[in-house]
Amino acid sequence: MFIEASCRNIWKRTRWLSLAVLVLGPMAIAGSVRQQLSSRDGWVDTPITVDFLFEDVQSHTPPIMPSVPGLTITSTGPPSTVNNSFSVNGHRTNHSVRTYRYLVTASEPGTYTLPSINLFADDTTWSAEPVVLTFQSTADQNLLKTQLLHIPDHAWLGDVIPITLRILTKPFADTQLTDGALSAADMWRLVQLDKSTWGPFRDRLEQLVSTQRFPALSVVEVASPSGSPDRWYAFDLRIDMPLAQAGMLDLTNIRVVMSYPIRIARGRTSFLNPIPSLSITESRTVSASPPPTELLVEAPPQSGKPPTWAGAVGDFRFDVTASHTDTTVGEPITLTMKITDIGPHAADLDLLQAPRLDADAALTSHFRVPADRPGGVVKGRTKTFTQTIRPTSSVVDLVPPIPFTFFDPQTGTYDTAFSRPIDITVTGARQVDAADVGGVSPLASPTSTGVTSVQGGLLANYTDADQLLARKSPASGAVFAGVVFAPPLAFVLIAGIRRRQASSQRDPNRARARRAARVLSERLSQANGSPEGIAAAIRGFIADRLGLTATGLTRAEVVEALRTADHDDMAGIVDEALRNLEERIYAGTVSEPGDAATQKLTALCGQLEDILR
Question: pLDDT tens digits, residue range 338-365?
Fold first, then answer.
């Protein structure tokens, strides 16, 4: 009896509960909108997630996030949608949630407020409450430090100095680890390479990553807050850095970001690996930037500068050879000039210019020397230039020692390296007439025939003036020719236009080449005399003409492309022009070129258009 009574009571309760679900169910799943945060406290450069959930709504408007100074708010993409359905006593109910996710990131520590925003769904306005977010600095000198080593107090523009970026990190310690702390390799893997900014060390880092290597490692002692020494890992990135701009060396763009562990735990990584392994379960972002440098980069002094100096800074060896030593007056002699860097640190030979032969009085007194300096070819620590000279008289018997002047940053003075003299034999030139050329005879004396003068002008050719006046007008012939030849000409013209359009679609580089001259003119006009703008316009023009990729095109690539296209002479001229423009940019002199330089650049552009048609 007790069991039967209990069953009846249960049936009554479940019957009323089922009725309540059927009646109140639609009300329980009515549309709603709510806001959800991953946290209200975070770290600089680590995003806080803000979600907006639209539940069981028929229509809605995506949220519009406000702009807050100091914060970067980005959407993760299209909303995610989750649909569920359940049935109670045969009544099926659908439940859907559409979530919009935004990442809120701060670049500086502080407290920020996300203002209230309105959300619209099913003809209803929902208001999200204001949210106060606090971001703490990720800089923690007790966990991560960076230093710049081997930086002198003074250096010269154009010199190359060795710099080392040292990254110091305290090993994460835990008794669960075999050695009591994470290894150096594990700690380096926690450095967030993509979120860090490396400045001039980026190329070196990418080289290490591509070869799957780590930076040079050492273990150093670092004083703890209590004063006792701790053993830290030190990772060193070393580069030879060219000094391309005068003034205080600015390396403030270096910032290393690391995901530092807070807690580790054991857990199975997969079904196939049942043995629990240690993994990082919680971490925090830490970052470090090196202190500002006090290195002053100074341009070489004007006092004592020889007229043959062409901007070389470093220590070099100079050697010159001649293509031949027996020649005649006016015949070109090709000089091959090799400049080898013998300094303690590798110089940037891409910026090294050819010697100023036209400024050498001993050479120009007996030889005709071009004023334009050629471009060179870099191989290892040697750069080779070729230049032609022409003897002006037969009395010269040698190519005098050619000077190459450079500024020595070690002594702070100008120095000159001389090539060895080259003995030559020069004979006088003689005139060559047509009789000296095989198979060609001298021109015969001109002959003349008599011309009979006729009186009466044009009418003198006719005996009957009425016959002249009776001739047909040539206009009728022109009209006939137009009627006959106009359709074929129109057909040929239309076919040519269509062929040209089809050719442009098959080969877009042809269209680029045709537009290159107009684009060059527009870019030069937009440059307004800026050296950087002019250099970019010239590189872009050559890229358009030769079908090269314009983005990131360097001077060396432009020169090599011209040489490949058999334009060696123009390659040297372009190399010299771009080099001069780069010098103005690197030296911080970005004023407009003078009239002579402007005219020279204009002439260069005209020559480029002629040879690259």
Answer: 999 998 888 888 888 889 888 888 899 9
